[in-house]
Amino acid sequence: MDGLLHFDFKGLVVIMMSAVLVNNFVLQRFLGICSFLGVSKKLDQATGMSLAVIFVLLLATAVTWPIQYYLLDANDMGYMQTVVFIVVIAALVQLVEIVIKKYMPPLYSSLGVYLPLITTNCAVLGAAILNINEKYDFTASMVNSLGAGLGYFLAMVLFSGVRSRMEGGETPDSFKGLPITLIAASIVSIAFFGFAGVVDNMFS
């Protein structure tokens, strides 16, 4: 575990804000696009999916970080990282699915196939692997994953609002459906470039 990066409060805030705005996992890293496009039509669906993803992100990080350093690295099994992380994430998603199905049936029905697809949501796996690659300590890893989840939530809510506005407007036939959705997503993504440099200079 030598070489891990430790951060003070300001450093953790920068990590959080960077994950939310500058390096948004959906709009800048383009991870988790499947659920982003599929469940952002309605605000309640977007909110429910976002909360589920945040929960899985935090749990996945809390489990995969010690597994990486105390099990895989300690036994020279780093090559098993991706496989082990996917298995852990799949188990956590099953847990979330059971809880939502039992206590929030309407949300479970509205999310449909996209809820189990969190298992293959590359944003969750990407955050877990990024924390290791960046050599974050446990606290920084949890903060980064929380920021990734909040960034996902922000992207989903914003795009849900954009799509609701598009439904009330007139769209040329050749752009209806997926084309206008992708164009709108690209415009929202470009807007986030305006945050570049803001976070780095936040405390300067």
What does this structure look like?
The chain has one domain (9-195). The mean pLDDT is 85. With 204 residues, it is mainly α. The protein is globular and about 60 Å long. The protein is 67% helix and 0% strand. The chain has eight helices and no strands. The longest helix has 30 residues, at 43-72. The chain has helices at residues 9-22, 33-38, 43-72, 81-103, 105-111, 122-133, 138-167, 178-191. α3 (43-72) packs antiparallel against α4, α4 crosses α5 (105-111) and α7 (138-167) crosses α8 (178-191).
In short:
The protein is built from eight helices and no strands.
Shape: globular
Question: Uncertain spans, ≥5 residues at pLDDT below 50?
Answer: none
What Rg is obtained from the alpha carbons, in whole angstroms? 18 Å
- Helix and strand succession? HHHHHHHH
Task: Estimate the helix proportion, in percent.
Answer: 55-70%
Structural class comes to mainly alpha
Provide mean pLDDT, rounded. 85
Q: What's the structural domain tally? A: 1
Distance between the termini: 31 Å
Annotation, overall tally of beta strands: 0
Strand content: under 5%
Helix count, DSSP H or I runs of 4 or more residues: 8
